[in-house]
Amino acid sequence: MIFSAAHILLTAAATGVLALGAGYWRLGRPAWLDALAVAALAAAAVFLWRLSANMPQLNDDGLPGFSANDWAAPILVFVFLTVFADLRRPSDPHRYRQVRALATMAALAVNVITI
């Protein structure tokens, strides 16, 4: 099964919205730019991964309800957000790690539910 670019974009956007909510909740109003960056990076990671790996072999559910792409997209979100934190040190590293974990879990949930 192959998904349309629009479907992948909506999946990425949903991940971004949830990541933005998590970022705003945990980082607070003073770090709204960081929350926006987290959302953009999470959405970009999902979009780029799902679009580049959009092939039947990776979209077929090997485990009922879970494809290889469902597992891999959140991993890329985690990597993108880790690299971002390494390049731009968060003002509150503990809260940023919480946001990164929430964004990763959101990416898994969105990918399993929407694709």
Textual characterization of the structure:
The chain is mostly helical and 115 residues long. The protein has one domain (5-114). Helix content is 78%, strand content 4%. The protein is built from 5 helices and 2 strands, in the order αααββαα. The chain has a two-stranded antiparallel ribbon with strand order 1-2. It is elongated and about 45 Å long. The chain starts with a helix and ends with a helix. The mean pLDDT is 94.
Return the string of H and E elements. Answer: HHHEEHH
- Helical fraction equals over 70%
Output the strand order for the largest sheet: 1-2
**Global geometry:** elongated
Count of DSSP-assigned helices: 5
Most strands sheet: 2 strands, antiparallel
Number of domains: 1
The share of residues in extended strands comes to under 5%
User: How many strands in all?
Assistant: 2
Structural class comes to mainly alpha
Evaluate the radius of gyration: 14 Å
Outline the secondary-structure elements.
Blueprint: H1 5-27, H2 32-52, H3 56-59, E1 61-63, E2 66-67, H4 68-87, H5 93-114
Antiparallel strand pairs: 1-2
Task: Spell out the key features of this protein.
mainly alpha, 2 strands, two-stranded antiparallel sheet, 4% strand, 115 residues, 78% helix, elongated
What's this, in brief?
By secondary structure, the protein is mainly alpha-helical. It has helices spanning 5-27, 32-52, 56-59, 68-87, 93-114, and strands at residues 61-63, 66-67.
